[in-house]
Design goal:
47% of the residues are buried. The termini are far apart. Strands 7, 8, 9, 10, 11, 12, 13, 14 and 15 form a nine-stranded parallel β-sheet that branches. By secondary structure, the protein is α/β, with parallel strands linked by helices. The chain has two domains: 62 residues, 2-Layer Sandwich (Alpha-Beta Plaits), CATH 3.30.70; 256 residues, Aldolase class I (TIM Barrel), CATH 3.20.20. The protein has eleven helices and 15 strands. The chain binds phosphoenolpyruvate and manganese (II) ion.
């Protein structure tokens, strides 16, 4: 529920609304707006009697939030959320953002080499897993802390921001020490202790859609992070399970405009995991930008045939350069642009 204050409401009147909500046993979150302040009521699991709030001085109206998720909804916040990263890159603003890098950090030479090339080709965020959620327990699990240190070194050398995955709550704290964005992978989208801990770190979070998650489930998972007071959440459509075997997953591009209408949070697309096939990454990356995605996260490897994970879906650096050229044309065609290359 949102308590919308009158334009003329005083700070004391807003404080009184907050105090009353707390007295009623709920949480209150003032949301200053351009025209007027609203106070969001959180912590209710069902209907709230709004009569007491409507009677308070300075209250214009009380709006029920009609979705099960609240703080992520457009009803709660009309303007788009823009997540600003430490290197100045903005996710959710007019320019689309490209995050790129190998599936996993494999060695110092590999990550530094690709980071420099990606920067030259126009990426502003470097991806690379240090903790890998592999389907098989016998597959390469990542370099762990050493991988995080290598990512930090790549950031120092290139200025690229770093996004990398955390697999569990303790890992979220560790990743937060090194990365600019904590990635929560598809397999962990509903790992609620992890979502809460990532929220508590205060670092931007990239939340990937679960393999079989509905859009409402994705938004409710994001709500866990906002409920910890962290609004810097970037959603990611990375493909869902379906019946066709020609691609690894079904990249659900309709989810992009759907999420945009339901939520103020930015959403990017992952055409690498979405298709599983190198040749399909560029067309679907183009399509995602055309559909309104705020950016892409793409796997690029200096030597894909020898990648330790996801080589078949990793672009060669030259292909990534071509992808950048093509999405720039598409972004401009819809009144946007690609985030300028780091200077
Ligand atoms: C990844 O980004 O490397 C990854 C494991 O992605 P997802 O969680 O979407 O499968
Ligand atoms: Mn991968």
């Amino acid at each position: 529920m949102l308590v919308v204050m009158k334009h003329s409401a005083t700070d004391e009147q807003i404080d009184a609304v907050v105090a009353t909500i707390k007295e009623m046993g709920y949480g209150a979150r003032p949301i200053p707006g351009g025209q007027r302040t609203a106070v969001g009521l959180i912590g209710n699991d069902g209907e709230v009697d709004s009569g007491r709030l409507l009677g308070l001085d300075g209250v214009l109206e009380v709006i029920p939030v009609t979705h099960p998720y609240k703080q992520v909804s457009r009803e709660w916040r009309e303007q788009d959320t823009v997540v600003t990263l430490a290197n100045g890159t903005k996710v959710g603003a007019l320019d689309v953002v490209v995050m790129a890098g190998p599936c996993a950090v494999e060695s110092e030479v590999q990550i530094l080499d690709i980071a420099h090339r990606l920067r030259e080709l126009g990426a502003t965020v470097l991806r690379g897993g240090a903790f890998k959620p592999r389907t098989s327990p016998y597959a390469f699990q990542g370099l762990g802390r050493e991988g995080l240190e290598l990512l930090a070194k790549a950031r120092e050398e290139t200025g690229l921001a770093v996004v990398t995955e955390a697999l569990d709550p303790e890992g979220a704290d560790l990743v937060a020490e090194y990365a600019d964005i904590i990635q929560i992978g598809a397999r962990n989208m509903q790992n609620y202790p992890l979502l809460r801990r990532a929220g508590k770190t205060g670092k931007p979070v990239l939340l990937k859609r679960g393999l079989s998650a509905t859009i409402d489930e994705l938004l409710l998972a994001a709500e866990y992070i906002l409920a910890e007071g962290n609004d810097d959440v970037i959603l990611c459509e990375r493909g869902i399970r379906s019946f066709d075997t020609h691609t690894r997953n079904l990249l659900d591009l309709a989810a992009i405009p759907v999420v945009k209408s339901l939520s103020h949070l930015p959403i990017i697309a992952d055409p690498s995991h979405g298709t599983g096939l190198r040749a399909k990454v560029t067309p679907m990356g183009r399509a995602a930008i055309a559909a309104g995605a705020d950016g892409l996260i793409v796997e690029v490897h200096p030597d894909p045939p020898h990648a330790m994970s996801d080589g078949a879906q990793s672009l060669y650096p030259e292909q990534f350069g071509e992808l950048m050229r093509q999405i720039t044309v598409i972004a401009r065609a819809i009144g946007r642009d690609v985030t300028p290359r780091l200077s």
